[in-house]
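Hello forum,

I keep getting stuck at the same step: I have a sequence, I want structure tokens, and every attempt I make locally crashes halfway through. Rather than fight my setup again tonight, could one of you with a working pipeline run this one for me? It's a single chain of 94 residues.
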Amino acid sequence: MVTHLDRLALEIPGDAKPIQIVQFALGHDIKTVRQSAVWKTVKAAIGEVRKQFERAAVPIKKYGVTPQDIALLVAEKLEIREQGRFIDILFHDY
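Reply #2:
Ran it on my machine without issues. Output:
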């Protein structure tokens, strides 16, 4: 666990994949996560997952499919209940 006196202590397993880190962020208030010692890791994971969805949408863009559409499909497959919040976290500029 990474802790700093001026930051909130939250834990992310060292072997967590980027999508798992994004799911971790969904389990907490984003303001709390942003103030925590793990924010840098979460922010990097959000960027990586967003890039993956953006790349996945490129070949089917001509059919009107967006990265957000891909993210919704993945959220459904992962049984993420807060799909709107998932999209907001991924596609919001922090």
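The chain has one domain: 18-91. If your local run keeps crashing, start a new thread with the error log.
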